[in-house]
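Milestone 3.1: sequence recovery, worked example.
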């Protein structure tokens, strides 16, 4: 113990640097854990849908949704989520995977849906662009 006190006294810069790095690590860990939703890739999303019967939600505008969307996805445009028009009652206890074109808009939608009381919300990283780049099928309405 006396060696530790002596080390701290002899190397205040190293100790300060260590404490700063430790603080940043713990802060990042806390920030990741407190996020209301989780990011998932296509493989994880597929497992959620197949194993946990997750509902896929497309937050793009209706006209874009009709041009092509992930199979069995429902359309819930971000504007409807923001205005409170979206019907989310049936989805509160069910895992929900949210996607948009590139993954950015769906982050905001995921945050809103979590705040609206959904228990298990996931954001598809890369959105439908990642889905298309993997050459996975689209459904058209």
């Amino acid at each position: 113990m006396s060696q530790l006190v002596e080390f701290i006294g002899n190397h205040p810069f190293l100790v300060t640097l260590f404490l700063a790095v430790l603080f940043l690590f713990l802060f990042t860990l806390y920030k990741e854990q407190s996020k209301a939703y989780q990011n998932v890739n296509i493989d994880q999303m597929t497992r959620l849908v197949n194993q946990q019967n997750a509902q896929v939600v497309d937050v793009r505008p209706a006209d874009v949704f009709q041009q092509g969307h992930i199979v069995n996805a429902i359309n819930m445009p971000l504007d409807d989520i923001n205005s409170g028009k979206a019907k989310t009652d049936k989805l509160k206890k069910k895992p929900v995977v949210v996607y948009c074109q590139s993954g950015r808009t769906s982050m905001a939608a995921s945050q809103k849906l979590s705040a609206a009381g959904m228990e298990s919300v996931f954001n598809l990283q890369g959105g439908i662009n990642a889905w298309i780049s993997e050459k996975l099928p689209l459904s058209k309405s």
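Residues 12-34 form the longest helix (23 residues). The chain has seven helices and five strands.
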